Fold:
Amino acid sequence: MKKLLLSSIIVIIGLTFIGRLSYLQIFSFSADQLMEDPAIKAIYDYPERGYIYDRYGKLLVGNDPAYDVMVIPREVKALDTLEFCQLLDIEKEKFKKELRRARIYSPRLPSVLVPQLSKQDYARLQEKMRRYPGFYIQKRSLRYYATNASANVLGYISEVNERDLAKNPNYVQGELTGRTGIEKVYEDTLRGSKGVQYIQKDRFNRDIGKYKDGVLDVQPVQGKEIHITIDKELQEYGERLMHGKRGGIVAIEPSSGEILTMISGPTYEPSLLVGRKRSKNYSKLHYDTISKPTFDRSILAEASPGSPFKTLNALVALQEGVIVPSTSFKCYNGFYVGRTLRGCHCGGGTRNMNVGIYKSCNAYFANTFRKIYEKYTTTDEAQDVWSKHIKSFGLGDYLGSDLHTGRKGRIPTKEYYDKWYGDNRWSSSYIISNSIGQGEVSVTPIQLANMTAAIANRGHYFTPHVIKKVAGTDISIPDFVKPKHTTIDKKHFDPVIRGMADVYKKGTAEYVQIPDIEIAGKTGTVENFTIIDSVKTQLTDHSVFVAFAPVENPKIAIAVFIENGYYGGRYAGHIASLLIEKYIKREITRKDLEKVMLSTTLESEYAKPYSGEPFKINEYNWRSLHAIKPKTEENPSK
Amino acid sequence: MAGKSVLKRIDWLTVFIYLALLTIGWVNIYSSTFTDENLSIFDFSTLHGKQLFFIGVTFGAIILVLALEASFYERFSSVLYIIAMVLLLGLYPFGKTIAGATSWYDLGFFNLQPSELAKVATALALAKYLSDIQTDIKRRKDQLYAFLVLLIPVILIVPQPDPGSALVFFAMVFVIFREGLPLYYLGFAFLAVLVFITTLMFGTIWVSIFLALFIVLFLLLKRKTFKVPVFPMISIAVIAILFSLSVNFVFNNVFEQRHRDRFSLWLRLEKDPVKLEKIRKTIGYNTYQSEKAIESGGFFGKGFLEGTRTKGDFVPEQETDYIFSTVGEEWGFVGTTTVVLLFTLMLLRLVYLAERQKNPFSRMYGYGVISILFIHYFINIGMVIGILPTIGIPLPFFSYGGSGLLFFTILLFIFLKLDSNRLKEGI
Structure:
């Protein structure tokens, strides 16, 4: 018994140890990742982020090297302060103050002593720095913007946060990553990959040489430069035109789907979100919930398209064979839904399709729309056909572009109406607003521009995108080079396009013609409401315009959406006209028009709902430029 | 009479395990003290170089130990014991203080730690006393003397201060048990430890309730089958409760804060997680680092010389008391288990050897050897892997240190010599 006692204790202890060891080394084992090992310090060598150029090779975003003089107070030895201050070109008092501050922060950790030296200073200092232990120069790279525009397209970068780190182990604390726009979408391309050196440390945090003689060290790989499809000059010009106005503009090259410009107003200067002031500025922009400068209206603002949508209904009706271009309908200064007369401002009379388009006759398209639904025995069936046609223009769903965000918009389906009105409890008269692009239909400016491009191409479009070249090589992403065909036959486009061209010649946009360029376009005026003190209040109409030019071999398709800009031919029409001229001619011939557009703002319009007082809408205060006063007022429709 | 005959009869299994532990130990010392600059393993300015020298010296000592007559050890054990005690006493005027403990004699080329010698001498002396024909361990007086043999070195060592080493001598109580000390002593000791721990964890009131409940249940269940010593049981319970009260007193008034913190950490007495974490990182810093190092080794370890925490010197005293954490980091679960198994095997083998001795002195000395080796192994590894509080004693044959290696080896090989001689007994 006693003999066994000791032996059993020995065995039990042995088993206890093995149990504890298996708990430590097998169950709670977590391999020291090189990065997490406290005994290994990783020193990173950050590559330069890739440059971004516009479609013509003009620089949009580069890098500014910035050199900070760093100090580790504990390692500072006695030095000739005067000489050193001369070298750094700072006051002796300031030097002492900064040094004191660094010491208070931490004697062991590096602090910035003199931030952002110029390259010349750096070159001069670099060699002499070794004579001053405790001081060294650290290179940083900041984004440099060669443009004050395209903030919404380019996006911005900022330091990675905990969430990013958890998601992607390739990042380390303090590294920068793209947050929005190009910087986000092409992060991997632009970033390159960082180099790393592993240093073995002891428990006092002292370096004791390279870990494994540096066999695991990695050289940095520079980020790749990219060219984007944006036209820098057009973008800057467009943003100037948007001064004081809210809304979105998108222009697309129809033959390729390349986005030429993508403007959101109001916007901000991209350089605001660089460096140390980034965070402060960002808060200021982000919390401006009235004008929302960080909200990219060109791709996010969903609204009813208004009259430009009539062109699609015309195309659907032609495709379905329910009308031909010569089909006429009578306009009674409106049209009847049951016994209610809904208004139209086209002047009344018998309209064929061509006139219907260029005069933007509501009655014509209401009748056309009814015809489509009358063709089918059930409304469900008709709704299916209609929405399938409309969606083939890239509406009602994500476009699949390479932008970091987007919205679907809405093209109602039968399920949508069934849910709203109940199964079989609705008909075309319930949804007649859709005929003129109002009601349940909503789109974003980029969808509108893409739709216009599809019309310009007579039946197909290319997925809109912003990437053009990576590292100097044209890239062809299969999804971007393959045409997406609409469900409308090519032959039906010509009469519609003729109508759109007549919009400029004799229609609602007669006064925004461009000399020597034949344009096809369509105005739109969108009623809109807001809620003020729980009362639904109508605001001044949104001004919408879509256009492409030239009519043959179109080079640009554009959609302009100006919030509360009144009728389509007014702000949107003028801005579209100026941008088309700028893009095709590279110069503006109509300086007076340009001047008005650059100087007019809608601030007073936007202030109305917040004034707390009753206000008038759709006011006719077109100031100096009497010459461009439109002949026909466009149709705000119900 | 040395030479061939000893080599033929010595227990080679133990020698083999000993050599294995020695080798593994040195390899890990090499790894713990390795820096990129010094590449020669014979460089005596490095710790591993020195240790290699000590191993050489130790081999010389083995030859000497085996060469001496087996009867020498029994005959001179008392003298050796007296010499050891004098050396311990001599530390007070002449000792050298390292890390706050005056435990060494400075011999120029190396520091001698007499408490290591005292372990060997005490094991011999205890065996000698117990095996004396006139000693009867059932007698209280003889029990007292036997305890005194152990107590004298403890009294000399504790004030150095070196409580860890002092603890080792208590382990030799095992020898006395083996030789007939009634087991209820062990029962009392066990009860005392239990009361100590439960008092710290739950307080005196709960301990009293536990004891009362235990007695009541015992009486209810066992009443009819046999005669119950009611009075002694109740008196033991009362003593236990008094002891429990004294534990509180000692813990709060006699212990220093660092001792309290060690227990707080070990028994998780501190409930505030923030404070506990703070204790873990300060008082428990060594254990924390060594646990982390062992954990990071995983199943197969990081490989020889690849232990980043070892290289970065994250575990303090890694080449001495915390050498086992190097095994854990670089050789993983495979390595640590191997070492634990080697120790277990060696101890079991020694128990077997001790039991086969015909000469009571040899057997008792054998038990002394086992007790000493076992308590070192148990406390050291238990501390390094974080299941025992921090008590600084080395891992036999493993930890860096000349005195330790030398005397552990002498301790073991005296027994192997006695064992090899067992058939020629009967003096």
About this structure: Confidence is low (pLDDT under 50) at residues 623-634 of chain A. The interface with chain B takes residues 2-3, 5-7, 9-11, 13-14, 16-18, 20-22, 24-26, 28-32, 37-40, 200-203, 208-209, 211 of chain A (CB under 8 Å).
